[in-house]
Amino acid sequence: ALRLSYLSAGGHNPAVLEQLLHLQVEATALEMGLHGDRRTGTGTGTGTGTGTGSGTAGLDAALLAVELENRRLEEELLALKVRKERRADAGSRAARWQAQELARLQAEVGMLRCHAELAGPRLPPAILPPPVAPPLPP
């Protein structure tokens, strides 16, 4: 529950996830030691964890290891999904900002065009008389 809460709150630090997994393994080991194998009803409740024999205990340990690895992989997958969603959110925010900036610039260009039209036609360049040529020789 702690791990899921951490992930749903946006946590994705691999070191913290590893610590949470370690705590889960420890808690599961303690629980199995105190209660024994729940399927067969063995266990003394004293913390000795006698089990049903070395073969079954080995299988139980292997099964526990596989289950814990599956949980770790599920957590990693969830963390990757959260990161992907965050990147998608950041991308959509950037696209939204660009669209707003483009709209603002287009509006500014429209206003400048309107001002230019209101100012009226520009004065033509000054027309100067033709240059005076020097007098011709006699």
TrEMBL record:
Q: Where is this region: Disordered?
A: 35-55
Q: Where is the composition biased (Gly residues)?
A: 42-55
Q: What stretches pass through the bilayer?
A: none
Q: Which domain of life is it from?
A: Eukaryota
| UniProt name for this protein | CCD17 protein
The species is: Urocolius indicus
